[in-house]
Amino acid sequence: MAYPLLTNCPVCSESLKITKLQCGHCQTTIENEFEASKLSALGQEQLHFIETFLKCRGNIREVEKELGISYPTVRGKLDDIISILGYNVQKKPGVDKKKIVGLLEKGDITAEEAIRLLKEGEAE
After folding, report:
1. E strand or H helix at 2, and its extent?
2. Which residues form the DUF2089 domain (predicted)?
């Protein structure tokens, strides 16, 4: 039985080094210091999420349906994974609903434009 690759020490939580590889067929052993992929830092649930995301070709609405979670939850999981992989997550500012309603009341935008702006804000 194979176990998932540990990336952090269970005692002190520091990063572990991969120092030994062995062939399961001929038992050849190679010892050195090896680098793990950034993806090895992800847990099983996060890897499942990434697989689903790729299977859905990055379509967040499809991921929503496949996993039975809300759009904001999908975005949150993506942000968490992006952060774990070492990249900055740039949060988009929320929609100012009062400003949109004010523009609509003044006649500066149409009802259709207001609806579009509000929906875009929900999708972020």
Report:
1. none
2. 9-39, 42-87
